Amino acid sequence: MIRYGKIKGVEKKVSRYIMGTAYITTPTAKPEQIEHLNDAFENGINTIDSAHSYGAPNVGSTEIALGKWLKESGIKRDDIVIMSKCGHPSYFDFEPFLQRSTIHPFDMESQLYDTLTKFYTDYVDVLYLHRDDPEVPVEVIMDTLNRFKKEGMVKAFGAANWSIERVKAANAYAEANGLQGFSIIEEHFSLAEMVGDPFTQGSGSISGPKYAAERQYCIDTQIPVASYSPLSGGFCVGFVTREKFVADPDKVPEGMRIGYCYPDNFTRMERAAELAKVKGVTVPQICMAYTMATPMDVFPIIGANNHAELISSLDALDISLTQAECDWMDLSSEERPF
Question: Residue 132 in 3-state DSSP?
Answer without folding.
Answer: coil
